[in-house]
Amino acid sequence: MTQLRVVIATPLSDENVALLREREPRLDIVHEPSLLAKANADWMIKHQRNAQQQEEYERMLDTAEALFGVPDHSGKALARTVRANPNLRWVHTIPAGGGQQVKSAELSREELDRIVFTTSAGVHAEPLAEFALFGVLAGAKLLPYLQQAQRRHEWANRRTMGHAVDMTVAVVGLGSIGRATARKLSALGYRVLGVHRREVEAEGVERVHPVEEFAEVAAVSDAVVLALPGTEQTNGMLSREVLAAIKPGATVVNVGRGSTVDEPALIEALQDERVGFAALDVTAVEPLPEDSPLWDLPNVLLSPHTAAISEHEPRLIAELFADNATRLLDGRELRNVVNTVEFY
Question: pTM of the prediction?
Answer without folding.
Answer: 0.92
